[in-house]
Specification:
Strand order of the largest sheet: 2-1-3-4-5-11
Number of helices: 11
CATH topology of the largest domain: Rossmann fold
Largest sheet: 6 strands, parallel
Structural class: alpha/beta
CATH superfamily of the largest domain: Response regulator
């Protein structure tokens, strides 16, 4: 985002693929005969590019001519083009809830691609951002840098006590639902295939997994617990490969719970390639809501909070946040639902 005053209406028109005359009309507050979608798109792009109307400050433009936006930032190393279906649904829920209030969302970037200078340029004196939503867990130094400029911040699927509002899923409830479901099918030997090593979200799910096993008077031997850096299908398969050398042991698990449904898909396919039946020989489940766009067989059993609901709850929090020093910060925990797929069945 270049410094204000260096972006011209002609440049904006070229970037948007529209006429300079239309850009000029919109940036001077003209709405007549201009669609609301076009009007909002031009203003949103102009503000994001650091444009200030020539000869005046943005603060002097009519209030109803200013776009109302909420920025969102992805954690590293996520990118908008590879956000993944889970957080894509979070973003959709956020956007839909804000749009109903006449507010647009604007993508500010990914954590690891934003320097302190980049962050500062989002907040000129007349900026129109209504707050920031952090999609997944960012590093604390990045958050502290962001809070120098904006304190109306909501974190999704992460908590920063005393620093931000947050919206999270009920991880203990989700893992209890999965263990109880599998236990009810006769499973007594469990394994854990984890991802996103080092993030609090993994640690919370892993701890909830062991707590749920303890309630059922069960344990998971360390040799059947694997945690990898990412949390995708490839690492679900890799986690299976790491436990397969123990497959002939009498205590080998009949059920594996994975960090998420992506890993569960990868794990299920890896077992099938090894000649195992899923769920006939081994059951596989994911510790989040199964992706609705995944239709390949077997469909995955999972438990978690609706990602769209997480986004909608974040929208509500960011719009009610004041950013004042004495503001009470709120942690919202959404309930979990068990979604039965084809990847779990009776213990063999």
């Amino acid at each position: 985002m270049p410094p204000s005053g260096r972006i011209s209406q002609t440049q904006l028109a070229q970037e948007l693929g529209i006429s300079q005359a239309l850009v000029s009309l919109v940036l001077n507050g003209r709405k007549q005969n201009i669609s609301p979608e076009t009007y909002d798109r031009i203003w949103q792009h102009a503000v994001a590019r650091g444009y200030h109307p020539k000869g005046m400050r943005l603060s002097s433009t009519p209030k109803d001519a200013r776009p109302r936006t909420v920025g969102f930032i992805l954690r590293a190393p996520m990118r908008l083009g590879t956000i993944g279906s889970y957080f894509g649904h979070v973003q959709h829920g956020l956007h839909t809830a804000l749009q109903a209030k006449g507010i647009s969302t604007v993508f500010l970037g990914s954590e690891d691609q934003l320097t302190p200078e980049d962050v500062a340029r989002f907040f000129p004196a007349e900026h129109t951002l209504q707050g920031i939503v952090l999609v997944a867990e960012v590093a604390r130094p990045f958050l502290l840098e962001l809070r120098k400029h904006e304190r109306r911040v909501v974190a999704v699927s992460a908590r920063y006590p005393g620093l931000t509002h947050s919206v999270i899923g009920n991880e203990p409830q989700a893992l209890t639902q999965l263990v109880e479901h599998l236990h009810g099918l006769g499973h007594r030997r469990f394994g854990w295939l984890g991802g996103n090593r080092g993030l609090a979200r993994h640690d919370e799910r892993h701890a909830a997994f062991h707590a749920a096993l303890k309630e059922a008077d069960l344990t998971c031997p360390a040799r059947y617990s694997v945690t990898l850096p990412q949390a995708d299908r490839a690492e679900g398969a890799e986690a299976v490969h790491q436990v397969m050398p123990h497959a002939k042991r009498r205590d080998f698990p009949t059920a594996f719970i994975c960090y998420n449904s992506l890993m569960a898909h990868g794990a299920a396919r890896a077992f099938i390639r090894e000649g195992w039946k899923v769920p006939g020989d081994v059951s596989v489940a994911g510790a989040d809501t199964p992706r609705p766009d995944m239709t390949e067989k077997p469909t995955i059993t999972g438990a978690g909070s609706s990602p769209e609901s997480l986004g909608a709850a974040a929208a509500k929090l960011v719009l009610t946040s004041t950013g004042e020093n004495g503001e009470t910060l709120t942690d919202v925990m959404l309930s979990s639902q068990l979604v039965l797929g084809e990847s779990t069945g009776p213990a063999s």
